[in-house]
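tool_call predict_complex ligand=iron/sulfur cluster
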Amino acid sequence: MGKARWWRETGESVTCLLCPHACTLKPEQEGVCRARIGGEKTLKIPGYGFLTAEALDPIEKKPLYHFLPGRTVWSIGFAGCNMDCPFCQNSRIAMSPAGTGTFISPKETVDRARRIRAEMVAYTYSEPTIHIEYIEDTAAEAAKAGLKNVLVTNGCLNVKPARELLAHIDGVNIDLKSWNATYYRDVLGGKLASVKKIIEIAAELCWLEITTLVVPGDNDGTEEMANMCDWISSLSRQIPLHLSAYHPAKRYSKPPTSPASMNVLAGIAEEKLDFVYIGNIGTENNTACPECGQTVIRRSFYDTELKMTGGRCPSCGKAIPGVF
Ligand code: SF4
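tool_result ok
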């Protein structure tokens, strides 16, 4: 078992300092995330190194569209999650107790990535950051081996651990699930202000893209989308935004988001951001130069073709933001 960090003693209990839930746990009591458990004057992480999923993916699947496009990434996932989205697509893994899966050491994860000729390791699927200790150990091994590190997260994390973790990460995709703080708290079990802060830190420390799953009736208001994109744009209008269509899952059975609604919301986002992509409805998602409109990256499902050299538009020479 790895050694848990980010906690302090609180009388007979311990308080976890990793995420905004600040769970105060008696011995053997599980945190909201199920991955971190109270012990005698300690915090236990019995799921250290237990992976629930391993797969070789195109980087576009994370999704990251401006980070080494067309390359492959060794993706690993863990049990547990510190939010409770009622439409979760990964709920079986997210609800699993600590210790579910197979133990794979950080070094073995990196060895597997190298053997399969992946150029990156991604910490992804349910919520990886509740396994911060394993990610940091693995990311250090991966960096030593010349591999990049990628994180896909809900951003439900406190500032200090986020700064430390993101310093190990080269590319990150963070969910921004709504622009409504009450909805974030009451429906999703998260905290909008914390997610915004983590996005700001990520924008400073590594390559950042954002994903919003559009759920009909929950977060598909045009004013909400405009306000959210105004804020993203205030950080940088070059941050790519992925608008992903919801499909029924977990406790939600309402119909999927319509392509018409996705197109309306993408149109609003495109007024404020240079790179807006629509996911989960089978549309083409090429990258166009924001200066002259020339296609600079062509994508067909997970087939990717770079049409630029040195990260510049072949037509007008504008630098396209990203890691290429
Ligand atoms: S990481 Fe888990 S145990 Fe720690 S505060 Fe968040 S939900 Fe609670």
